[in-house]
Design brief:
Length: about 210
């Protein structure tokens, strides 16, 4: 179906959703299965992916604790340092030097973001790049997702993370009002960005939209 110029993105999405619904209903009629079975179909790959992952990671922690020599050998094969002597803006970086990206500085660069310590989602209006596209962009000024890593160390789940967070946050904002808990003031300390909040510090109320 053609998308005429000027058609709002939300309307185009609605059109595509309607098409998918019609295709699903048609397929259900052909194969003779009800809505319950249709809902179970996408749930199967989700369960198939999450359960084995959790199980393998549980065994991983156990095996690493039981066999430290294997852990050490694996760690030695994962470079965390410069592989050769290098020079960066006149500064000498010797081989085997440990290098850590300054994620806070990269995320709050005043040359890229006016008032970087001010929470302003509107600054990203018009940014059509996905997290993955931004992370590998040839222009470093467009690489505004440093927490996903760089180069060969770029997070392989970047697509899933961005899509999942978008869906969850959009639904939360649609369904709830989120406010500070009375008597428990909030701030924008960097420590909160670098770790999970230790306790619930907000009040959540239904919006009444449904």
């Amino acid at each position: 179906m053609a998308n005429p110029a000027g058609t709002p993105r939300s309307k185009r999405i609605g059109i595509h959703v309607d098409i998918l619904k019609n295709l699903r209903k048609e397929k259900q009629r052909e194969d003779g299965f009800d809505d319950k079975v249709a809902l179970n179909i996408p749930a199967m790959p989700f369960g198939a992916g999450t359960d084995p992952t959790a199980a393998v990671l549980s065994h991983f922690f156990k095996k690493m604790a039981l066999y430290p020599e294997a852990q050490t050998k694996a760690q030695e094969g994962i470079p965390h340092a410069a592989t050769k002597d290098d020079d960066y803006t006149g500064k000498q970086i010797r081989k085997d030097t440990m290098i850590y990206p300054n994620l806070v500085a990269l995320s709050r660069d005043p040359e890229l973001y006016a008032q970087p310590n001010h929470f302003c989602p509107d600054r990203f209006k018009g940014d059509t790049l996905s997290a993955a596209e931004s992370a590998v962009h040839e222009d470093y000024k467009q690489q505004d997702h440093p927490h996903f890593g760089f180069g060969h160390r770029l997070c392989p789940g970047i697509h899933v993370v961005e899509s999942s967070l978008f869906m969850v946050i959009a639904r939360l904002l649609w369904a709830y009002h989120i406010k500070p808990r009375p008597g428990n003031p909030l701030d924008m300390k960097i420590s909160d960005v670098l770790s999970r909040l230790s306790e619930l510090t907000v009040v959540v109320r239904l919006t009444g939209l449904f």
